[in-house]
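Recap slide: Glycosyltransferase family 2 protein, sequence and predicted structure.
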Amino acid sequence: MSGETISFVLPVYNEEAVLPLLIARMKDLIAKLDAEVEVIFVDDGSTDSSGVFLSQLAKSDPAFRYVALSRNFGQQAAMTAGLEAARGDAVILMDADLQDPPHVALDLVAKWREGYEVVYARRIKRDGETIVKKVTSSLFYRLIGHVSSIEIPRDVGDFRLVDRAALDAFLAMPEQNRFVRGMLAWVGFRQTAVPYHREARAAGKTQYNYRKLAKLAGSALVSFSDVPLRVALWVGAAVSVVAMMFGLYVIALGLFWRENMVEGWASTMVVVSFLSGVNLLMTGVVGVYVGRIYAEAKKRPLFIVARKVGFDRAEATQDR
Ligand code: UDP
Ligand code: MG
């Protein structure tokens, strides 16, 4: 099927070492894809020659486009900027360091043509990453799988294809703290995966340190779960029950075995333990409400319509 446009979105931050190879691989890929292609590079405030290189390329080759951010906003913001600029019927998100091999895009597009709106690439093997990175990453996905009500697929990075319908839903989410791959899982639609072998970086070195990764993980947890808020509620309830029992015990002690007790100890203990229990409990209750306010403040759409049939005849011709 032709007449379709496929957009590629690649965030770029100081990747001058890989760009020539990347461009060559992208050109190969474009030749193999039976569709109109635009490749959007989002320059996330690079301080090396990436910007000059890419803007030159965008001037000379109509398949390539260049978006420059005003400073380094981070990969999540850069991807969002690219997704907003994309005009394709489907958009493929990809890292610029060739860890996501471009030829896998052919499989993604094939699945899209079968009718899936979100096709993510699942890494079955990861090269060139440290054990620590693999272990922390696996722990993180386990944790978020437990505490979040939506399923964020395992072993899946940002490398994926998103159909226009799912993309528009994503773009309608105005939240400030963006965890793009979580949000793209949240929008739903028919989702599927294709396996791939994640390669080592072609050149240069990772832009992420553990501080940046921890920040991303924290933002993901808070955006997709209010479990941290609820913890206070449960801890508070547990402490209150224990404090109540302890209070009864201390009162009994004071009544029946008064002679071996320090004056005032019983009353102090009862008051302190009871109050701290109540305190935590109320903090937890407040937490639940703050959680609600937080959910409201995010102003996410309440639902997303996947398809419409038979409403507007003019629109029907656009249906695939
Ligand atoms: N990146 C970005 N802004 C940043 C950091 C990274 O746009 O602040 C880009 C980077 O150029 C690459 C992608 O995001 O295309 C993934 O970054 P990296 O390869 O450093 O991460 P890793 O693969 O180690 O998780
Ligand atoms: Mg990388």
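Residues 175 and 298 are 5 Å apart (CA to CA).
The chain has a mean pLDDT of 82.
(End of recap.)
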